[in-house]
Amino acid sequence: MIKERSLIQQIRRIAASSVNKAVKKGIGDDCAILRLKPGFELLVTTDLCLEDVHFRRAWHSAAAVGHRCLTRGLSDIAAMGGEPLACFLSLGLPADLPQAWVNGFLRGLLALARRYKVQLAGGDVSSAPQITADIVVSGQVPYGTAVLRSGARPGDRVYVTGALGGSAATLKELFAGNAVKPTKSSSNFYPTPRLEVGGYLRKHRLASAMIDLSDGLSVDLSHICDESGVAAILMSNKIPLAKSTDFELALHGGEDYELLFTASKSAKIPSRIAGVAITEIGEIRNRRDYSSAIQILRDNGKVRPLPQRGWQHFARER
Amino acid sequence: MIKERSLIQQIRRIAASSVNKAVKKGIGDDCAILRLKPGFELLVTTDLCLEDVHFRRAWHSAAAVGHRCLTRGLSDIAAMGGEPLACFLSLGLPADLPQAWVNGFLRGLLALARRYKVQLAGGDVSSAPQITADIVVSGQVPYGTAVLRSGARPGDRVYVTGALGGSAATLKELFAGNAVKPTKSSSNFYPTPRLEVGGYLRKHRLASAMIDLSDGLSVDLSHICDESGVAAILMSNKIPLAKSTDFELALHGGEDYELLFTASKSAKIPSRIAGVAITEIGEIRNRRDYSSAIQILRDNGKVRPLPQRGWQHFARER
C-alpha cells in the first residue's frame, strides 16, 4: 500500500535532481515560490491525465504515461512561445497500485523534465479510484510577446510542424487489438513538445497565431479561427502525413503535439526549425466569406467545409 | 450529458465576472498569462478535491464543494502571507452528472473567488468515473518576504487563529448518520481562508514560520518542526476549541483551515487580527532535547509526546 507521507518524501527526493534557478522554494512548504526574470510575464497551463480516458495501463507503460502527462503541459508552453520553468503534479492513486508503477511514472515524467530544465516544484497526493494526474506547468515569456490564438489575419499562411496523424494511427492499432512496440520516437508513447520551434517563432516574431495540436487539426484550427474571427482553407495535398497513418487521422486524430501556426504572407518561414520540418498547409481567409470556419481544398479541386471531429472527452468514451 | 466544449464555454462566460488585473489573458488560449507586480515573486499551490475522499455528494452541497475546493488553495496562499491572484481548475466529471451539480459547484467556487478578487484563469475538463477537481492558486508576495515552514527557532511561541476541531466534529456527526445543517459559518461546509491574517503577519514581519491547518494540528505542527529542525511543546489548556468539539478532534482533526504560526518571544502579537482571535498555544524548543517532535503539557502537569494522527489519505479511506 502506498503511504501518502512516504510518497511525498519519495517525490521530494527525486525532484531535487531537476533544478531550475527560477524556483526559490520547491516541494516542502504550503506553496512553491518562483521568481521570474524582470520584464517577463508568467504562463500557466493545467492538463488532466486520467486512466482509461487519456491512457490505458494495458497499452501505455508507466514511464510513457509520465512522459505524456508532462508533454501535455510543455506543449501548451511551446504554443505560446514560452520557456518552461516548473511543473506541479497532483496525483490520485488507487490504494492497490504497485509502487513500481509510481516509480516508472515519475521516472518518465522527470526524464522529460530534466531535458527541458523544468523543476518539479510541488503538487498534491491523494487516494483515488483510478490513476488521476493533473499536471501544471508554469513558464515565462518577455512582456507582450506570447503568441496567442487570436492573432491570425486574412491572407496569413497556415503552417504545421512535423507530420500529423501518427499518434492516432498507433491508437487505432491498439484499439484493433494489434501489438504496437512503443519506441522512444513514437508520437503516441513519447511525444516531443516543440519548445525550440515555439521559442524560435516567438523570438523572431514570425507567428501571428499559434496553438498545439492536442485535439486534432480540425478542432485546433477551429480554435484559432474562433479566437481570431477568421476562416481557414486547408490544401489537402499539402498536409504532412506521419508514417503508417491516413488522411482522416491526420485531419482529426489528436495527441500529435505538433504546433499549428499562422504567419503573414511576407514572413520568411524556414523549412526546418531546430531540426523539425515546417510545412505550409493553408491560408487564413475572411470569416464572413464562408459558411463555416474551415474549408478544405480536396485533390479533385473541390472546396468543402471541414467538420470538427477531433477528440472531445464528453462526446465519446475511449 | 455534459459536453466538453459547452462546459468550457460556460466556465469561460461565468469566469469573466471574477477579474484580477494581474491576469493579462485568462481562459481561451493554450496558457493563461499573468503579470506580477515588479519586486514580487510568484506563489503556486495545487490541491486535489476528490469525491468520496475529500467530500461526499450526500453530505456536501455542490456549492459547498466548490467553496471548499478553492479554500484549500487560498489557505495555502494565506499560510505564506501572500496575495492570491488567479486560480485554475481541472475538472473531471462523470458523464451522467446533472448539469445542476456543475452549476452549483461553479457558483460556490466563484463566489469565494470574487470575495478575494481571484480570477478563474484556466484549467482543463475531462470525463472521469468520479468527480475530480484539482485547484491551482497562484499568488504573489514581495521578494523574500514569504513566511516559510522552516523559520521557527527555539524560544518562539506557537499561535493559532480561530478555534480548532469544528470541521472534524461536523464530519463525526455526518459519519454517525446525524443530520447537520450546513450554515455559511460552518468550518466544514464553508471554511474561511485566513488571507487577511496571513497578509498582516507577513507585512509586519511578525511570524517566523507558518502553515495552514489542513491535516490537523498534530500533523501540521510536525511539518513546521521537521522543516525548522525544532521541537514544540503544546499547552493543552490553551488550545482554543470550536463549539461542539472535543480536545482530541482539536488536536488531530483536519480541515479547519486556520493558521498555525510561530513568532519570537518578543514579538507583539495582537489578540485579534482582522477580527480573528489569535491564541498562544505553545513554545518551540530544541529538537535535540526531545525524543519526538511534539510534546503536550496535559492538565495533570505531565508532559507526554503527542503522536501525529491527522488526516492521511492513504492511511484510511473516508
Number of domains of chain A: 2
* SSE-based structural type of chain A: alpha+beta
Characterize the main sheet of chain A.
Answer: 8 strands, mixed
Q: What is the CATH architecture annotation of the largest domain in chain A?
A: Alpha-Beta Complex
CATH class of the largest domain in chain A: Alpha Beta
- Total number of helical segments of chain A? 7
CATH topology of the largest domain in chain A: Phosphoribosyl-aminoimidazole Synthetase, Chain A, domain 2
Shape of chain A: globular
The radius of gyration of chain A is 20 Å
Q: Looking at this structure, what is the CATH superfamily of the largest domain in chain A?
A: PurM-like C-terminal domain
Distance between the termini of chain A: 28 Å
**Low-pLDDT sequence parts of chain A:** 314-318
User: Average pLDDT value of chain A?
Assistant: 93
Report the oligomer: homodimer
Largest interface: A-B, 73 and 73 residues
Amount of helix of chain A: 25-40%
What's the β-strand tally of chain A? 14
Order of helices and strands of chain A: HEEEHEHEEEHHEHEHEEEEE
